[in-house]
Design goal:
By secondary structure, the protein is of the alpha/beta class. The protein has 13 helices and seven strands. The chain has a single domain, classed as Vaccinia Virus protein VP39 (Rossmann fold, 3-Layer(aba) Sandwich), CATH 3.40.50.150. Strands 3-2-1-4-5-7-6 form a seven-stranded mixed sheet, sandwiched between helices. Strand 4, helix 7 and strand 5 form a beta-alpha-beta unit. The protein binds S-adenosylmethionine.
């Protein structure tokens, strides 16, 4: 299986995430301080409150966790805090520097090993080892060949009973419609390009695939039994306030009662969260 972005060199993906590591502007405090990391975490889980329930940090106490695409390490730290032994990899050295600094500040360095790695070639860089959980939140869809990452996991890093938890972007999401209405000028034949252009806080992401509930099962492929898959997350805030760290919802989201907003999130959310068990 190859896709729209298969010809994009991995160095372009790497450069993009090095220029602006994911969530790096989630705080106004001095970058790299404890206050900075606390604010990053508070904002991340305020805006994406479904993450702790999906990751189930506490469940992995005393277990081995492999995190693919750790970014600046918000979830990484929470796995380690909960008592997991974590291996965290990312393509972006700038993200890894902050994640490492974060682990030191919180006294968790002895529980986390970091590697600068292209996950499509994971086994060439990190020792083959079986993990209880392989976790990857918002990462695999940014790699030119997502299926190679899954193949690496399947062949080298899981045993029978290991869990795989991945979040990939959902193709039938409100956000896709919003991108097409606000930026895409209705050019649905260029849908993938437009999604990539506007999928992240910084425009111009070189690779962003999106999946349906069926195509994500095809991506995960044989060797895994799907335990759960659901969609979550509509970003409801006005960007002009959000960049100033104020959380004012768009007028149309203010009209809806919270119960309706939650129903819509479950139907049209941007995050397709999948848990599977290795056979
Ligand atoms: C949207 S960020 C998510 C980071 C983190 N999981 C989080 O939720 O904050 C995507 C991350 O995936 C990493 N990434 C993309 N392709 C990768 C690959 N082939 N191998 C390793 N990391 C990759 C990027 O460097 C970036 O840090």
């Amino acid at each position: 299986m190859s896709g729209e972005f298969a010809e994009i060199p991995i160095t372009r993906v790497q450069d993009y995430w090095n220029r602006r590591p994911c969530n790096i502007r989630h705080s106004t405090a001095e970058i790299g301080t404890k206050e900075y990391f606390d604010q990053v975490e508070a904002r991340k889980y305020l805006v994406e409150p479904h993450i702790p329930a999906f990751a189930e940090f506490e469940r992995w106490k005393g277990k081995k966790v492999l995190e693919i695409g750790c970014g600046i390490g918000t979830d990484t730290i929470n796995f380690a805090r909960a008592g997991a032994e974590v291996t965290a990899v990312d393509l972006s050295v700038e993200s890894l520097k902050l994640a490492q600094q974060r682990a030191e500040i919180f006294g968790l360095s002895d529980r986390i090993k970091f590697y600068e790695v292209d996950a499509e070639k994971l086994s060439e860089y990190i020792p083959s080892q079986k993990y209880d959980l392989v976790y990857s939140f918002g990462v695999i869809h940014h790699s030119p060949h997502p299926e190679k990452i899954i193949e690496q996991i399947r062949q080298h890093f899981v045993h029978s009973g290991s869990e795989l938890k991945i979040m990939v972007y959902y193709r039938y999401a409100w956000k896709v419609l919003w991108i097409m209405l606000t930026n895409g000028r209705g050019q649905f034949w260029k849908l993938d390009r437009w999604i990539a252009e506007h999928s992240e806080a910084q425009t111009g992401c070189p690779v962003t695939y999106s999946y349906t509930k069926k195509t994500v099962v095809d991506l995960i492929g044989e060797g895994f039994e799907i335990k759960e898959k659901y969609v979550e997350h509509i970003f409801p805030y006005r960007i002009k306030d959000y960049v100033k760290y104020q959380y004012v919802k768009e007028w149309y989201w203010r009209i809806f009662p919270n119960s309706i907003f939650r129903t819509l999130e479950k139907k049209l959310g941007w995050h397709l969260c999948v848990t599977a068990k290795a056979k």
